[in-house]
């Protein structure tokens, strides 16, 4: 019990003193995850909106595949990216393996289906609600997609936050393509796994506390946005 108490004390000390290694790991984690979410949103938002308003043969199969990809195993995604980015792979010439860029790609691959699937549901509901009005105004094609995306921007912000929560907690894929290299690709989740195995509980606990604070803040932001939207709708 005394060892655990001492570890918590050291962990709080690292946070309060803004330990340089701790800060570097947190900043890299935020840079990787935020970049991955931006990339995932650039792909997932228009894809989800298009699937919501466009009807085509095989759409049902595409939606089933998209929903299945929401639960895509991270280690499998990491393995596939590793094969693509390794020296023997088709993208090996880019020299991205064991870099933050590879980690961004890994997280984006995992987050994009989530963003696309949630966006599809949001836009489909909105399209159903305003279908007659939009049809009377002859809004169609890309204009329809852009209009619906703009009208649903607050709901889609919660989608992006959900994606960030998924990305910041990822460990399996990023450790495969990133390698967990000190001061290069070591993020919060991979460091927690490594330092726990080493018995360095202070740093692991400090990063765990920060990670919990970030995920709690994301969930609070999502709840706040939804409450604001609900209040505005009934106002």
Features:
single chain; MetI-like fold; globular
Mean pLDDT: 88
In the CATH hierarchy, what is the architecture at level 2?
Answer: Orthogonal Bundle
Total beta strand runs:
0
What is the global morphology?
globular
CATH hierarchy class name: Mainly Alpha
From the 3D structure, determine the CATH topology.
MetI-like fold
Largest sheet: none
CATH homologous superfamily caption: MetI-like
Rounded to an integer in angstroms, the radius of gyration calculated over CA atoms is 21 Å
- What is the string of helix and strand elements? HHHHHHHHHH
Spatial gap, N to C terminus:
53 Å
SSE blueprint and pairings:
Layout: H1 2-16, H2 20-53, H3 59-69, H4 74-85, H5 100-136, H6 141-151, H7 153-168, H8 172-178, H9 188-198, H10 201-234
What is the structure about, briefly put?
By secondary structure, this protein is mostly helical. The chain has helices at residues 2-16, 20-53, 59-69, 74-85, 100-136, 141-151, 153-168, 172-178, 188-198, 201-234.
């Amino acid at each position: 019990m005394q060892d655990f108490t001492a570890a918590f004390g050291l962990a709080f000390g690292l946070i309060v003193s803004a330990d340089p290694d701790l800060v570097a790991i947190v900043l890299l984690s935020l840079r990787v995850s935020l970049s991955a979410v931006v990339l995932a949103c650039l792909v997932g938002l228009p894809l989800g909106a298009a699937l919501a308003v466009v009807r085509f043969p095989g759409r049902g199969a595409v939606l089933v595949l998209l929903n299945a990809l929401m639960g895509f195993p991270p280690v499998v995604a990491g393995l596939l990216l590793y094969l693509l980015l390794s020296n023997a792979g088709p993208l090996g010439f880019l020299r991205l393996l064991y870099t933050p860029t590879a980690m961004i790609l890994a997280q984006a691959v995992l987050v994009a289906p989530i963003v696309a699937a949630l966006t599809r549901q949001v836009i489909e509901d909105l399209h159903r609600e305003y279908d007659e009005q939009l049809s009377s105004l002859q809004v169609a094609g890309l204009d329809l997609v852009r209009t619906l995306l703009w009208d649903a921007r607050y709901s889609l912000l919660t989608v992006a936050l959900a994606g960030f929560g998924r990305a910041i907690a990822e460990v399996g894929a990023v450790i495969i393509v990133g390698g967990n290299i000190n001061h290069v690709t070591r993020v919060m989740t991979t460091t927690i796994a490594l330092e726990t195995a080493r018995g360095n509980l202070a740093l692991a606990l400090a990063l765990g506390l920060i990670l919990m604070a970030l995920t709690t803040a994301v969930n609070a932001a999502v709840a706040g946005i939804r409450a604001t939207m609900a209040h505005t709708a009934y106002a």
